[in-house]
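This section describes the prediction task in plain terms. A model, or a person checking by hand, is given the sequence of a single protein chain and must write out its three-dimensional structure as a string of tokens. No templates, partner chains or ligands are provided. The sample shown here is typical of the held-out split.
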Amino acid sequence: MAVRGDLGRTQIVTPLLLASTSPQRRAILEQLGVPFEVVAPRYEEIGDDPLEHAAGKARSVEGGERPVVGVDTVVRCGDRVLGKPSHEGEAEEMLELLSGKRHEVVSGLCLRTPAWEELRVETTVVTFRALTPRDLAWYLSAHEWEGRAGAYAIQGQGAALVERIEGDYLNVVGLPAATLVALLAERFPGLYGFG
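The expected answer:
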């Protein structure tokens, strides 16, 4: 339990349950000052629908009365959906595809309790600069592509690949923070510090 002061009153805040083991999602919640606990989801991802996966992750966690949040993110470039590369060659193919182009980072978010469930999709548009073979070799050698949808991490050295971003930066990092904050403000006014 977290304690939050509210105009001289002490209020006990029930931590969210984060149905994810992603270090990026944990870091974003810490940055926002939202109390949370991590629970590994028991959900097998099949297909590439981020909203379906976010809901599946959140529903796989038994939270009791506590709010549970599940998130899933994919990268779309044209008609291709880019997940997490399984090896360096696949990461290189993805980065070559993104080079000099706009792509979408699409996250599904599910916030639920036993009484209700909210589902949202957030899209951020990212434009990569044209990448040279040297750029690709440099970035691949950093190994940031490992475990990253679209084979890059914008919060790390991957920032050097990006020319422009339109939308929620933290969505590209791994959690659509603006969407989550709006839902917390709506569903729990003041409890988590929003609304």
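For orientation: The CA atoms of residues 17 and 68 lie 5 Å apart.
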